[in-house]
Amino acid sequence: MGLRIQNNIASLNTHRNLQIADKGLSKSLERLSSGFRINQASDDAAGLAVSMRFRSQIRSLQQASRNTSEASSMLQVAEGAADQITSILTRMKELATQAASSNTSNTDRANINSEITSLEDEITRIANSTKYSGQQLINGSFGSVGVSDYGNITSSIGATALDMTGARVGAEYGVTISSAGNGSISITDGTTTQALTASALSSLNTETLDFTAFGIKITVNSAFNSNTTEGSDTIETSASAASSFQIGYENNGDNKISFSLANMTKSGLTADITVTTLSGAQTALTTIDTAIDTLADARATIGRNQNRLGFANANLSSIIENLSSAESVIRDTDMAFETVNLTKNQILTQAGTAMLAQANLSPQSVLSLLG
Predict the structure, then answer these.
(1) For residue 229, is pLDDT > 80?
(2) Who contacts 168 (Cβ-Cβ below 8 Å, separation ≥6)?
(3) Contact 217, 266 (CB under 8 A)
(4) How far is C-alpha 21 from the geometric centre of its chain's CA atoms?
(5) CA 139 to CA 127: how far, in whole Å?
(6) Which of 31, 186, 346, 349 could form a disulfide with 195 if both were Cys (CB 3.0 to 4.6 A apart)?
(7) Higher pLDDT residue, 208 or 238?
(8) Residue 271 neighbours by CB under 8 Å, 6+ apart
(9) Is 138 in contact with 264 (CB distance < 8 Å)?
(10) How confident is the model at residue 352 (pLDDT cuts 50, 70, 90)?
(11) Out of 149-153, 206-210, 273-277, which region has the weakest mean confidence (pLDDT)?
């Protein structure tokens, strides 16, 4: 091999390897100091894209978990008020029982009736004043769906009742009778279509067709089967205070929980109660029993929704944990493995520096030829 001084190939080769080792050392220091394996897109472009989606989903799910906790707290406020109304109805039952006995004088019944009237007013006051974040909860407005326009649904198709309490709000639904002669009804919003057929109408008093895809129930009776005119109409719904709780990171029904709370005012629970007479007091016993049953159903609704939110929150915690683990595998640094790389690159950098010095000295041997 000839001796050359214009290009020191050994030095260039050593310098290249030293640059590689130094770059690896810098990368190891960056990963160990940040805790992330991916610090910029060039580290792992595909991994960065996946981890970014995971991160946004995790943050969204963490907020969804807070949403479920707050919704459960809101229901607890409603439950507390409902419990007091239960106590009031229990007292009203006690008073009505007293008034329904012949040993109670008319004067005493008048006093009892005054107390019952006051208690009825208190029920309505509690129901109207029970709020969460400014929203009234148990006066019948929370989550309720109002039908602003439903054309001639009941008359045009011969249906006897239209239940919109579970309907989605802010949308219109075209109700089409595909073949009224055989009892078939189809509901569509242009994207989703659901068809149901009433059975054995000729021998049936009524039948309720539950269109679960839309939250709409249509009740028909035997007269519907004789309506052979096909037709359609439109339902437009609106909400006074729609309840929709986001429990996921996507905009669809599986990532939301919606429910309504019952009307627990006096008018929502019971008719007017008068115990000034013996017969009125006896009738009041049945009326109050009905109110207690209605309130029990309302409290059961609160309880089952609290339980549902509890399970939803537990599921969110599990999902957050597992997504965080998946995101960590992709993006976080394996500290033990990266420490090995750091040590290796430190040694290579030190050795490369020493060898570069030796390579730079090698061409000086040509000076011996110049003697």
Answers:
(1) no
(2) 214, 215, 237
(3) no
(4) 51
(5) 5
(6) 186
(7) 208
(8) 287
(9) yes
(10) confident
(11) 149-153
For residue 269, the one-letter residue type is L
Q: In the chain, what are the domain boundaries?
A: 145-239
pTM of the complete model: 0.67
> 3-state class of 245 per DSSP?
strand
Contact 224, 181 (CB under 8 A): no
Tokens representing 84?
């007091």
Residues found in the chain: 371
- Across residues 211-230, what is the average pLDDT? 66
Give the whole-angstrom CA distance, residue 177 versus residue 156: 10
At a CB cut-off of 8 Å and minimum separation 6, what does 228 contact? Answer: 180, 181
C-beta neighbour count of 303 within 10 angstroms: 13
Cα gap 50→56, rounded to integer Å = 10
Does residue 94 carry a pLDDT above 70?
yes
Residue type for 51, please? S
Contact call for residues 345 and 21 (beta carbons, < 8 A)? yes
How far apart CA 328 and CA 72 sit, in angstroms, is 31
What SS3 class is residue 116? helix
CA distance 38 to 195: 52
Type of residue found at 131: K
Q: List the one residue out of 83, 103, 126 whose CA is nearest residue 281.
A: 103
The H or E element that residue 167 is part of is none
- Walk across the sheet containing 232-239 and list its strands: 145-149, 232-239, 172-179, 184-188, 193-197
Phi, psi angles (nearest 5°) of residue 95: -65, -40
Token output for 113 = 């009736």
* pLDDT tens digits, 275-318: 999 999 999 999 999 999 999 999 999 999 999 999 999 999 99
